[in-house]
Amino acid sequence: MSKNFYHYPVWVRLWHLTNAILCLFLIVTGFSMLYSDPDRALVVKFQRAVSIHNVCGVLLTISYTAFLIGNIFTENGRHYLVAVKGMAERLWKQARYYGFGYFKGEEAPFPVTGTRKFNPLQQVSYVGVMYFILPMLFVTGWALMFPEFILKRFLGFSGVFLTDQFHVILGFLVVVFLCIHLYVSTMGKSPLSNFRSIITGWQESH
Amino acid sequence: MAIRKLLLLLFILSLLATPEATGQEPDTVKSVRGASNSLYAEDNENNCLVCHGRLVYSLTDTTTGTTRKQLMSEHNLVVPDMFYNSVHWSFSCLDCHSEGFKTFPHPLETRFESSWGCIDCHGYDPNYARYKFEEIDAEYQRSIHYTATEGLISCWKCHDPHYYNPLARQARGGREYIIRSNEMCLRCHGNSDVMGLINDENVSIVLPKHEWLPDVDRHMEAVRCIDCHTRMNDSVLVAHEVMPADSAVRGCAECHSQNSILMGTLYKYVSQETRVEKGFLNGVILRNESYVIGANRSKFISFTGMFLIGMTIAIAMVHTLFRIIIKRKQVVHE
Predict the structure, then answer these.
(1) Same structural domain, B232 and B304
(2) Which of A172, A205, B31, B177 satisfies CB 3.0 to 4.6 Å to A112 for a cystine?
(3) Are residues B206 and B171 part of one domain?
């Protein structure tokens, strides 16, 4: 018998929706900027991709600020506090469950409860993306709009070039995260239950 | 607890607050420019500009009293309105030109007066330190403009002091700035008569030499001549060490590749200057023309990134396959 928990209040759902739409636009325009040719656009024309990417980047910074404020002032922030002690063991348990236990019909080692929204793997990856990768993407993205603040040269390379490459690497990592995030979301009670949760706010335990 | 959270919030907001655009001196001078504010305007108008400020001037023979109208050569003409809108608007003509010009007809030696260079007034002045005139002058002295002409091609051949205004502030965007910057070069290099100043032989003009470039027109509109023809130095706003033609950049990959040379120069300059002029929204966000196609494309990063994405999707597909197989087995079992 599964239980339902109200883990996604309205503000989290609105932020998540905004975040998802902006990230999709940023990924599509980011790839267009990276791989367009002068005569052949990749999805979006190069110059238009630059404008859309910049607008979405600024909006994502604003939406991220709202997320940070929400996490500071509401209980949602608690889910992002990782207990370091015993972390390796918990991560291994969860990884083993995804790799083997899930197929053997074992019980999830860290099921959703009233106080637990994320399993250890989710928790670590969300913290990594939300508190490390995204802020670094913002810093590098804004720096590219204010290039005079970037070191002129570093290790023989142009500082702007290195900042840009770092931004691209972080962008690739976000795409990898998105793929994992979408796939793991299909591993709820049913393949669509987690997608329903982020719309209704109620998460099913399994 | 609430106070701690509030302090944390304030700290985060202070980090997010973007600093004001720096790197540009306050342009208070702009608002008071004009003949009406120049101490020397009247002096200039009554003396030098009587002739040099007009396309048609009157010349009187003081012995016979005969007066004749003449055309002023465009090379000796100073359009007053444009002069009073330039950065040097407040100067008297004789601040820069020799006293010999007070005599009319001008004595022959005035033809040989040596002009001031930018460095003579702006060098070693803390107010202009950000422009690094000293470094620009050192670059200029190493450039082909100086070494091949013994200094005949001075600062003024490109930057007319009578009309000078920073180029980026006049242009309406990155693309227009590039076109204007290139016009500066083409004033001489696009005109074989002017090129005759340094070479008596038949000097071919510059454009046909660029026909090897794919899509020449697009390149001329999107890249400054100096991006390929100067030695890169991103510590000055605009590089001034113009190299001999055979040392210019010719490889596509030098711009359209990782570590593009344009990232250190054109990108920085255009994005910085257009932001100051057009503001953050228009200059940086909506109409940012400083990006170059392919400038951030790295084969290694692309391959690694695509490999990671591909592997992630492949693992997810294999996992899905196992899920389907297990599910089917469970259904059959039940």
Answers:
(1) no
(2) A205
(3) yes
Question: How close is the nearest chain B Cα to the Cα of A60, in Å?
Answer: 13
Q: List C-alpha distances in Å: B83 to A91, B41, B45, B53, B169.
A: 72, 10, 12, 10, 16
- B229 and B246 co-located in one domain: yes
Look up the domain containing B244 and give its range: 164-295
Neighbours of B182 (CB within 10 A): 20
Q: What residues in B contact A168, CB-CB < 8 Å?
A: 296, 298, 301, 305
Closest Cβ opposite residue B235 in set A65, A152, A165 = A152
Interface test with A, best of B135, B218, B282, B319 (most A CBs within 10 A): B319
Q: For chain B, what percentages of helix, strand and coil (3-state, to nearest 5) are there?
A: 55, 5, 40
Q: What is the ipTM of this complex?
A: 0.88
Of the candidates B65, B36, B69, the one whose C-alpha atom is nearest the C-alpha of residue B51 is B69
| B131 at interface of A, judged by CB pairs closer than 8 A | no
Q: Are residues B271 and B170 in the same domain?
A: yes
CB distance A175–B309 less than 8 Å? yes
Q: Is B60 in the A-facing interface, judged by CB distances under 8 Å?
A: no
Domain count for chain B:
3
Domains of chain A are 4-204 (1.20.950.20)
Q: Hey, of B259, B275, B321, which one would you mutate to test binding to chain A, going by the most A CBs within 10 A of its CB?
A: B259
In a domain, B84, yes or no: yes
| pLDDT tens for the 334 residues of chain B, in order | 555 665 555 555 554 443 333 333 334 444 467 777 777 778 787 788 888 988 998 888 888 889 899 899 888 899 988 898 888 888 888 888 888 888 888 888 888 888 788 888 888 988 888 888 999 999 999 998 888 888 788 888 888 889 888 766 666 666 777 888 888 888 888 887 777 777 766 556 666 778 777 777 777 777 888 888 888 776 777 889 888 888 887 777 667 655 566 666 666 666 666 676 667 776 666 666 666 666 666 778 888 999 999 999 999 999 999 989 888 887 777 6
Q: How far from A176 is each of A5, A162, A169, B74, B304, CA to CA, in Å?
A: 28, 21, 11, 64, 11
Which domain-ending residue is among B64, B79, B110?
B110
